[in-house]
Every structure is written in C-alpha cells, then in structure tokens.
C-alpha cells in the first residue's frame, strides 16, 4: 500500500502506460545487467581465488561460466585466439584450452569463450 491507500503494483493509466511495478522491474533488470557486466570486468582482472568467488556468486544468480576445453571448435559459439599444432588427428578441431571463459545468463550468451584450437602440424 502506498501513502494514498493504493497498491502501486495495480496502478495503470487509461492509455496503457506502464505501471509503476513495470517501471521498477525494468529498472531492476537494467541494474542487474550493469552489475553482471561490472563483475565480468572485475573477474578478468582478478586473482584465481577472487575469480572463483565471483564465478560462484554469479552462478548463484544464473550467470554461468563457459569453458570449452575438449569441445569441437564452433565459431558460432567460441572465439579463436590462437592455435596449437598437433600430430594427433583425433585432436584436430578441438578446443585445446579456454584462455578467457565466456558467460551465459540463463541461456543467453553474454560473451563467448576465447579459446585456442588444435590444428595440424
């Protein structure tokens, strides 16, 4: 209840303008996106222990790290940063290492992992 006795979540105008609750939700979502981006920025510059803690915290709100080690390289899902030559034909085209983890927010990719890929020597 607000001061004037109305429930702000039920307020709507005759012309279909967003309710106060819709505006607050939009603001909260925008602030969440900004905080997640700030966490990713900090994560890229942090020590291993801090990285683990930030990833744990992000995971608790649905933002998960993407590491592609051992997966088949897919340019639509991975960003190639380099290659690793190999004579092992079974490794060709696989991700050798994730250099920078990617992140996904409840199924929506925020950034692709940056990887190195095995190629023929």
UniProtKB/TrEMBL annotation:
A Gene Ontology BP annotation from the UniProt entry: protein folding
Keywords: Chaperone
The keyword Chaperone is annotated on this UniProt entry: yes
One annotated GO molecular function: protein-folding chaperone binding
InterPro entries: GrpE, GrpE_head
Pfam families: GrpE
Gene3D superfamilies documented for this protein: Head domain of nucleotide exchange factor GrpE
Domain of life: Bacteria
Protein name: Nucleotide exchange factor GrpE
Source lineage: Bacteria, Bacillati, Actinomycetota, Actinomycetes, Pseudonocardiales
């Amino acid at each position: 209840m607000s001061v004037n006795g109305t429930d702000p979540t039920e307020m709507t105008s005759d012309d279909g303008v967003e309710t106060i609750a819709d505006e607050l939700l939009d603001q909260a979502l925008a602030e969440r996106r900004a905080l997640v981006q700030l966490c990713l920025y900090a994560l890229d510059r942090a020590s291993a222990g801090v990285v683990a803690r930030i990833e744990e915290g992000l995971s608790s709100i649905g933002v998960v790290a993407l590491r592609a080690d051992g997966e088949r390289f897919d340019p639509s899902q991975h960003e190639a940063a380099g290659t690793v030559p190999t004579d092992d034909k079974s490794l060709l085209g696989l991700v050798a290492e994730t250099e920078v983890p990617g992140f996904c927010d409840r199924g929506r990719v925020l950034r692709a992992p940056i990887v190195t890929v095995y190629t023929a020597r």
